């Protein structure tokens, strides 16, 4: 069982989520799950004491969900890594790619290449070397110091890290069918401090972007506008969201400028993608993350973008008790990254 069972651990700024899945069954079966508030400043800090506090919270969460294994897959935050699809490479063999990727990364990684780990995936390569042949590669540069921090926290929490990947790769695995029949999709991951975007097509991530606007900005705007405590503002956000017919439309007017920042960036991401990939037009948008369940958000994005928009459901292909699935329906998108991590194959 242990070789087929994984803990997906999503260490967020405001909360940490864990999902335990048994991949030995088809579909994968949910064993346990849970979440806990992240200590502040927590993962954003470099202080030893703060990192110990994060590890302590994770240990408490793991004890609560009681997984049968310690094998864990963790995710690096999208806003802390550097990703790009490199389109302008000539035809290159596998041996030539490694050096070419290092040169290409120097153009978009704002730190010495020696201080990052480079990973890449070939998206397209011409079948043979000709004048117009090209190689298209998705490149990830992860700071070594960031990787070391996450590994240190996991070790302090007495977990065995078997893999590390990015949040959007994990979310894509949980939410987008890796089939040629699945439409090209824009994932919008709305976290507490950032909103991340990824275009996914045929199981490949073709573009990523991150902006420093998230659910926390919505809560702060409500607190300031209505003179609420943050806890009360959070509750109002969850209950009324973007519903124009509630509270005389006052909450809608407060949140709209921030939501428009997120929605306008989505338009720019779609445009940037379709400029390079005219044959892969975005047909669908999937909202995920802690703020994806905001009342009225799906319809607002649908009208704003003119596309099919849906709230994420990472449990769609997971074997679980129907009563549990119903209970989790209101916070399904909250667990997208953790589910995707637990689904990572060997």
Quickly list its features.
36% helix, 10 helices, globular, five-stranded mixed beta sheet, 346 residues, 27% strand, alpha/beta, Dna Ligase, domain 1
User: Shape from CA axes?
Assistant: globular
Strand content: 25-35%
The counted number of beta strands is 13
CATH topology of one domain: Dna Ligase, domain 1
* Class per helix and strand makeup: alpha/beta
- pLDDT < 50 runs, ≥5 residues: none
Report the span from N to C terminus.
Answer: 14 Å
CATH class bucket of one domain: Alpha Beta
**What's the mean pLDDT score?**
93
CATH second-level architecture of one domain: 2-Layer Sandwich
Tell me about this structure.
It is built from ten helices and 13 strands. The chain has 346 residues and is α/β, with parallel strands linked by helices. The chain has a domain at 80-143: 2-Layer Sandwich (Dna Ligase, domain 1), CATH 3.30.1490. It has a five-stranded mixed β-sheet with strand order 3-2-1-4-8. It has a five-stranded mixed β-sheet with strand order 11-10-9-12-13, sandwiched between helices. A hairpin with a 3-residue loop joins strand 1 (5-11) and strand 2 (15-22). Helix 5 (215-226) packs across helix 6 (230-240). The radius of gyration is 20 Å and the shape is globular. The model has no long low-confidence stretch (mean pLDDT 93).
